[in-house]
Design the sequence.
């Protein structure tokens, strides 16, 4: 018996010493991209504009102008900031880094301010009137500032994407709208950057605090004379815009996911607009306005394409 036990023990020891088959390690899912945060951008030294232009009596009646090197006349980008249409979230200075990046590429940047829905007189119609008046001020000052009105493009981020496309679509406003003007600034093309340009589609998708909570202030009340408040406030209701535009969305943007850009593009194409969508991989909401990102390069090249300029040689 003892001999048998000794034999079995020896066999077990020998087996333990033999090389064993190693099970393959399971593949780990790819880590999600490390997206930029607002402090990643705003902690950098903030560039300052070439000049501040006060065009009206209100504190928000102001435009920051960024002037590139050279004699001009310079092509112009009309820039509209986001911040969920609320000044407590953002003002025009959030775009300073992007504005400087475009200035270095040869653009004059017309970075406008406007009243948010959380300011006296903001919402409908004040916010829209502010944006329109600030843009149209460019018509009055272009010659004196050596700016080329034949090469005007626009870019707006987030809520600013809504407002800049609305600017381009103003020629489509019904004459009965109190926002209608006779000779609005003309654009050669617009970039909707992580934009919320279709208010109806964006309302259930973006953060409730960004749009749903302030929607009625932004669009104004329905009345007998104005039964549909979106008819003169949402660019998606003003299609075809008649101006080429490109929606640029980050693949991982949770404020303005690509489905919003895709939906708007489909509606615009169906209406006859020259519209397209670019989805930038591994990109969120902030990368769109940071000048050292792939998203910035793409948007700068799109703006250049609207006026026949080649892509920058980065």
Sequence:
């Amino acid at each position: 018996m003892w001999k048998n036990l000794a034999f079995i023990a020896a066999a077990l020891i020998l087996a333990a010493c033999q090389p064993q088959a190693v099970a393959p390690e399971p593949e780990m899912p790819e880590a999600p991209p490390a997206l930029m945060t607002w402090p990643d951008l705003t902690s950098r030294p903030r560039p300052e504009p070439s000049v501040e232009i006060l065009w009206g009596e209100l504190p928000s009646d102001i435009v920051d102008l960024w002037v590139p090197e050279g004699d001009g006349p310079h092509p112009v980008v009309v820039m509209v900031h986001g911040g969920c249409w609320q000044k407590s979230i953002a003002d025009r200075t959030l775009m300073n880094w992007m504005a400087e990046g475009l200035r270095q590429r040869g653009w004059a940047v017309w970075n406008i301010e406007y009243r948010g829905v959380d300011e006296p007189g903001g919402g409908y119609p004040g916010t829209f009137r502010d944006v329109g008046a600030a843009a149209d001020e460019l018509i009055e000052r272009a010659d004196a500032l050596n700016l080329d009105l034949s090469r005007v493009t626009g870019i707006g981020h987030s809520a600013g994407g809504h407002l800049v496309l609305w600017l381009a679509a103003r020629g489509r406003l019904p004459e009965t709208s109190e926002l209608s003007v006779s000779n609005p600034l003309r654009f050669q093309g617009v970039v909707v950057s992580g934009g919320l340009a279709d208010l109806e589609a964006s309302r259930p998708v973006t953060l409730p605090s960004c749009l749903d909570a302030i929607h009625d202030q932004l669009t104004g009340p329905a009345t007998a004379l104005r039964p549909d408040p979106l008819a003169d406030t949402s660019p998606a209701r003003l299609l075809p815009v008649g101006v080429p535009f490109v929606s640029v969305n980050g693949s991982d943007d949770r404020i303005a996911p690509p489905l919003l850009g895709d939906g708007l593009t489909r509606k615009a194409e169906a209406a006859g607009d020259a519209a397209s969508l670019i989805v930038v991989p591994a990109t969120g909401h902030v990368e769109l306005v940071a000048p050292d990102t792939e998203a910035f390069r793409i948007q700068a090249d799109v703006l250049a394409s609207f006026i026949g300029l080649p892509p920058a040689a980065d």
